[in-house]
């Protein structure tokens, strides 16, 4: 199993357990997160790129993987991804570099998945 499959399987399994607890606040937060990335005045591609950049600056590997997957799904190119990486690195500084390495590895797995 590769990084993408492992991440998606674990995320799905744990989200099911979280939702099964039927906690109103958690459910509302998940819904807010989902709705924030829907089409609006800003298109989905731009929102996903913003989410990716913020996730890198905040150094959340799970969030980075999630947004990389969504970016890939909506057709963002490798060149565009590396521009997002560059912005996140400039804003976040050198502490972002380990997350950048893992992000590049994950992006490569997403690309391999489609070949």
Automatic annotation (TrEMBL):
One annotated GO molecular function: peroxiredoxin activity
The keyword Oxidoreductase is assigned to this record: yes
UniProt xrefs under Pfam families: CMD
Domain Carboxymuconolactone decarboxylase-like: start-end pairs: 27-105
Keywords for this protein: Oxidoreductase, Peroxidase
UniProt-listed SUPFAM superfamilies: AhpD-like (SSF69118)
Record-linked InterPro entries: AhpD-like, CMD-like
Protein name: Alkylhydroperoxidase
């Amino acid at each position: 199993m590769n990084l993408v499959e492992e991440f998606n399987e674990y995320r799905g399994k744990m989200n099911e357990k979280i939702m099964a607890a039927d906690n109103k606040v958690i459910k509302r937060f998940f819904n807010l997160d989902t709705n924030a990335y829907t089409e609006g005045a800003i298109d989905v591609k731009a929102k996903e790129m913003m989410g990716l950049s913020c996730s890198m600056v905040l150094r959340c590997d799970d969030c980075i993987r999630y947004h990389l997957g969504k970016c890939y799904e909506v057709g963002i190119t490798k060149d565009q991804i590396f521009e997002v990486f560059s912005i996140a690195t400039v804003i976040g500084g050198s502490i972002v570099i380990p997350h950048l390495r893992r992000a590049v590895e994950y992006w490569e797995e997403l690309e391999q998945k489609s070949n």
